[in-house]
Amino acid sequence: MGPDIPSRRREQIALYVKESGAVRNEELAERFGVSLMTIHRDLDALSNEGWLEKTRGGARAGGLRLHERNVALRYRQNTAQKRAIARGVMSYLRPGMTIAMEDSTTTAALLPYFRSLHPMTLITNFLPAINAAAADPDIDLVSLGGQYDRNLDSFDGPAVIDQLALLNADVSILSAASVHKGWLLHPSPDTARRKKMLSEIGETRILMIDSSKFDQRASYRVGSIDNFDVVVTDSGISDTHLEELQQLSPEISVVDVLPEDITAPPLLGLSNTYPVSQEN
């Protein structure tokens, strides 16, 4: 390993636990080259921040509800796939559109492309997207206000639902926590309801979904995949899941992950680095 930087090590521990499902403290100490006491402190910090759940003598991955409540973690996951999918979505967008975008780290990968859509209108409850649009004079912003949720970095609640009922967009762009048997699913009933409302205001509906979401399960239905006009996913999707999509959606776009998608900087903090002043 490189230098012992606690924040970087803890991020790696969180991702390792998620991939492994459950691990013992001794395994973590050996893998990351630190003491058991350091692992205990790291797990305490990660548990307090919602990245994982501590167990007796180890740690396990949090459930999907815990995962979806941690926007910082989601920003760091599947970033190459999210960039590839965003690139694929751009072929369906054009300047002058009104775009409704939800509070997703997958849809956040579209933010650097917005300057190529000038002039445009953005409807969103996602604070990073609100900040990016507010800094860009060529984007008309419709900010959905409600109760701010720091865990999601977005606004939620009845006020957002009421506002969505009055709006119309050329395109609605969504992601999902889970796809199972043709349904988009989410662990939170309130978020599922809001996602459904946002999808319905778009004349065209685009779903951005990376290949890892087909292995997840959740309790609340957002809607059926056949309600979407376009589904964009990455080339990591299995043949079985691709066949399921092809039976349900009128148009499927499978995008290859390029080397530059892998080596690009992290998505975290994207709204702070949005290149509004750069030319195409």
Please provide a written account of the structure.
- By secondary structure, the chain is α/β, with parallel strands linked by helices.
- Helices cover 35% and strands 23% of the residues.
- Mean pLDDT is 86; it is low at 269-280.
Describe the strand arrangement of the main beta sheet, using strand numbers.
6-5-4-9-12-14-15
Report the strand count. 15
Low-pLDDT regions: 269-280
The averaged pLDDT comes out at 86
Global Rg = 19 Å
**First CA to last CA: what distance?**
39 Å
Beta-strand residue fraction = 15-25%
Largest sheet: 7 strands, parallel
Number of H- or I-type helical stretches: 11
Which structural class do you get from the secondary structure elements? alpha/beta
Question: Helix and strand string, N-terminal first?
Answer: HEHHEEHHHEEHEEEHEEEHEEEHEH
**Helix share of residues?**
25-40%
Globally, the shape reads globular
